[in-house]
Amino acid sequence: MKSLKEIAVSKGLDVALSYLDKDVEKNLPKLIEWAERIDVHGSVKVQLDVIKRIASDPDNNWYKFALNIWRNIDLDVIKTFFTNFIVYSNIEGKPKRLEVERTHDCNVPWAILLDPTAACNLKCTGCWAADYDAKSSMDFDTLDNIVQQGKAMGTYMYLFTGGEPLVRKAEVIKLCEKHNDCQFMAFTNGTLIDEDFAKEMLRVKNFIPGISIEGFEEQTDARRGKGTFQAIMRAMEILRKYKLPFGASSCYTRKNTEVIASEEFIDFLVEQGCLFLWLFTYMPIGVDAVSDWLVTPEQREYMYRQIRKFRQTKPIFTMDFWNDGEYVDGCIAGGRRYCHINANGDIEPCAFIHYSDSNIHTNTLLEAYKSPLFQAYRKNQPFNCNMLRPCPLLDNPDKLVEMVVESGAFSTDMKHPEDVIDLTNKCRNAADAWAVTADRIWKETGHDCAASS
């Protein structure tokens, strides 16, 4: 049950956003002042300071981004997002998470990734989903219990992965409806988004899809199957029609990095109405995964520099989960900012690290956060003094071997369990090559590992 304070703050934000809608450019500073008054713990002070700088400069790229949201997204959906993200996830949730961390000496994640199912309607090249048992799934009661446990410890952000999460549309919407104080997102191939589902999204107001796209039609269909790109275009058209927020999710490989990092592709996403772009680099997960799709150091540096340039010029929020380690002090997995629960219930430190020593059917979330594997993550993070080398697999493979062996974690691949040494051996050449480039960039940007050690 929501506290009186939570209800009052939520109502206050609702009124403030309605007031803002009358004249967003004039009233934005007043909304910031209101947010500062209710943020008594300083949970979002850093974010508010950034917004204040943006609001003071109408020519700023992010100011234009904010106006774009206000003009193209349903106001009630905007209200719900701000309430869930600012009030529950940060102002109310952050103190809860910190208290559990202090009491139990463990990480408590800001977000939890959930796989409702391992099943998928596509079979994409290089995707590990097919290595899981396609029949694996978590029923609604299990998903609901995870969210209830998470909220009790201050976690109000949930992202659906898979498999294809929209194979379970009804349960996804039901979960959003029941937990209307949480913000839900999904990594989805987009092919199952239709008008009926868009209407349900508009009704619950707290679900945002990130649609997987590998570049333009040639690149997307080459990996995901002929006709996938056009299905994505139809999905985006429907989402725009109902004034619903959405973004894109792209995996850059040795074959498509130059396309995804191109100005042409970013402009295309903006034109389609994408508000964000999550960037993932290819990882050779699964016993049959090939290493020759791993990006070269030159490609990873190219992505690094392009994205930083676009943040100054393009009205779209971008996040590269490897190259942005400098902004979050390295790896965010192992519950430090997020964790992953697969369709079999295995609680993993990361969506890309398929090892576990806990399962939601036999362990609570708190027990998993205190487990040997998650504690190994907590003890070892950051894995490198160079935050451009954050990952324990792709950048520091010896660290992953050490943690898996030390904790006694098991491979969660249902069909073909993968030995951690075999997995890390596929990444060693790429890790060594990137280390040279990453260390050069790190020094160029004024950092010194020797001074911080």
Give the neighbour order of strands across the main sheet.
7-6-5-4-3-2-1-8-9
Distance between the termini: 47 Å
Main sheet overview: 9 strands, mixed
Number of beta-strand segments: 11
Task: Report the radius of gyration as a whole number of Å.
Answer: 21 Å
Shape: globular
How many helices does DSSP assign? 19
H/E element string? HHHHHEHEHEHEHHEHHEHEEEEHHHEHHH
- Our estimate of the beta-strand percent is 5-15%
Helix content: 40-55%
Structural class comes to alpha/beta
> Which whole number gives the mean pLDDT?
90
List segments where confidence is low: pLDDT < 50 over at least 5 consecutive residues.
none
Secondary structure elements and their pairing?
Elements: H1 4-22, H2 24-38, H3 45-55, H4 61-72, H5 75-104, E1 111-114, H6 140-152, E2 157-160, H7 169-178, E3 183-188, H8 195-204, E4 207-212, H9 217-224, H10 228-241, E5 247-252, H11 257-260, H12 263-272, E6 276-281, H13 297-310, E7 317-320, E8 338-341, E9 347-348, E10 355-356, H14 365-369, H15 372-380, H16 397-407, E11 410-411, H17 420-425, H18 428-444, H19 449-452
Parallel strand pairs: 1-2, 1-8, 2-3, 3-4, 4-5, 5-6, 6-7
Antiparallel strand pairs: 8-9, 10-11
